[in-house]
Protein: JmjC domain-containing protein
Amino acid sequence: LKEKAGNSEVIVERRGDNKGATFGLAAHKDGMKYGKFLEDLMAENDRLYLTTQDLERFEDDLDVYDMPKSVMAEPLKSLQRDFPVKPKILGKLISYQISLWQGMTKEGTSSGLHHDFHDNLYILLRGKKRFRLFPPSAASKMKTIGKVSKIHRNGLIVY
Structure:
């Protein structure tokens, strides 16, 4: 990863030193080289987390309509010859965005109860992760932030 994408510029969430600090929208974000991020992970720095990169961050990557030219940002652009952009397992689904989420933990962590608006292919490279999946029909029984106004036939939940 470092050899092929180490010089890529990425945005990384940086968690504070206090135990109650979490990753997410409120987390402090820093720009850094992907290679430096990998070095920090290998040194067991569990305060950093690479999440979805902003596709519109670089003006050179926008088309004439100011839309991203690609469904992925760095470091994946530098690695795109090493994985299928359209995995066979996804059938006829068209990728909206391809993201890399990368971090490490010494004590375990949780994404918490949430839902995504898009289909996901989750690949765990090392360690373990437990998923509990609930059908969209259970949304009315969940403690959601916002009132569920509609559940589409394809399972999309609208607040």
